[in-house]
Amino acid sequence: MEIKLEANVLSANDRIAQENRRRLAEHGIFCLNLISSPGAGKTTLLERTCELLRGRLRVGVIEGDITTSLDADRIARHGVPAHQINTMGACHLDARMVQKALEKFALAELDLLIIENVGNLVCPADFDLGEDAKVVVLSVPEGDDKPAKYPAIFQRSAVLLLNKIDLLPQSNFDLARVRKDLEGINPGLRLMEVSALHGTGLDQWIDWLQGRVQAKRKG
Amino acid sequence: MWRPGEGRTKPFFPKGMEKPVHELGIASSILEIVTRAVEEKGLQRVTRLKVVVGETTAVVPDALSFAFEAISRGTCCEVAQLEIEERPFRARCRQCGEEFRVEEYRLICPRCGQRDAQMISGDELYVDHVEAE
Q1: pLDDT of the residue at A88
Q2: Range of the domain at A209
Q3: Of A3, A6, A86, the CB nearest to B132
């Protein structure tokens, strides 16, 4: 007997992601899913972002890592509520992990929730967490071929933060090549050149965040 | 405020699966979907099943077959033949309506050269049908 199913394999995840999205929308919270390979500088970028937004926006951070609470510790030092998810081996966060983590936050007291995904340019692209936008971080030392080699995440993101831009003169990183590759992959992607460590180029990032948070609040 | 040792979120994994690699989690969801469908119909044994995997998903068909074989032992899918159909990444140009196969994720219309195309296939990940007895 043949049984026709046409059942989405990720439907359980997607359903919970929609619940997360609804819950965050009730509180007018703008939510980001921050994705990069390990070592691109996501956490340093978040630390800088928390500093720059202090007194302007109320930020919460969910940290995803295979193990340790090192990242949540770093964020918590900036006086920002942070919750660590340990995936214990899994290569990405899923919507259920985020759903549980949301219970740790006083959502009425947040404007912006940033979810730092497990360092990985591949698997996180498939898993909706309930975010409003994906932001991908690429760092200069990783090389200019990454958008061409890992296109899915660049195609699905709203912003590309090109980090460690201060290392450009010491490298053979070809910024023109990245721009050209991205024109084909995702012409709408906003590219921002930043150095989280030195705090350069972050104004446009902060402006973008504030704009999106305001738009979300108005519904 | 988070403090060390507090409030860890235990990740959700399917029963019996503590450290899934990507495809193992996917295989487990497939097994769940299939088992439920077969039980609903009062059937025992799945002989075939077909899964559709789009090119842009982070699912590797060989790894998925391997994972599915590993986790289906002792279940209704133990002898099931898994067929995986891969769907290519295709898009439709919003300017001229051309439908085209997307090579290397470049959403550039081969007819009019515009970069304004919408994906029409390639992100599928679903169980199409099962054959059971």
Answers
A1: 84
A2: 12-218
A3: A3
Calculate mean pLDDT across residues B14-20: 42
Question: How far is Cα B38 from Cα B44, in angstroms, rounded to an integer?
Answer: 7
Contact B52, B87 (CB under 8 A): yes
Q: Is A7 part of any domain? A: no
User: pLDDT per residue over A31-51, tens digit each?
Assistant: 999 999 999 999 999 999 999
A62 CA: distance to closest CA in chain B (Å): 10
Q: Do A3 and B37 touch (CB under 8 A)?
A: yes
B40-56 per-position pLDDT tens digit: 999 999 999 999 999 99
In a domain, residue A58? The reply is yes
The CATH number of whichever domain residue A110 belongs to comes to: 3.40.50.300
Picking from A122, A53, A58, A117, the residue whose alpha carbon sits closest to that of residue A84 is A117
Alpha-carbon distance A93 to nearest alpha carbon in chain B (angstroms): 9
Q: Count residue pairs from A and B with Cβ separation < 8 A.
A: 135
Q: Domain total for chain A?
A: 1
Structure tokens at B62: 């060989």
Q: Which domains does chain B have, with CATH numbers?
A: 22-132 (3.30.2320.80)
Q: Is residue A207 part of a domain?
A: yes
> Could you give the CA distance from residue B75 to residue A73 in angstroms, rounded to a whole number?
43
Asked if residue B13 has pLDDT above 90, the reply is no
Q: Distance (Å) from the C-alpha of residue B74 to the closest C-alpha of chain A?
A: 21
Which residue on chain A is closest to B123 by alpha carbon? Answer: A126
Say yes or no for a CB contact (<8 Å) between B22 and A91. Answer: yes
Considering only the beta carbons, identify the residue of A1, A100, A151 that sits closest to B41: A1
Task: Copy the structure tokens of residue A69.
Answer: 């609470």
Q: Residue B58: which of A126, A186, A187 has the nearest Cβ?
A: A126
pLDDT value for B21:
60
Mark the ranges of chain A whose per-residue pLDDT is less than 70: none
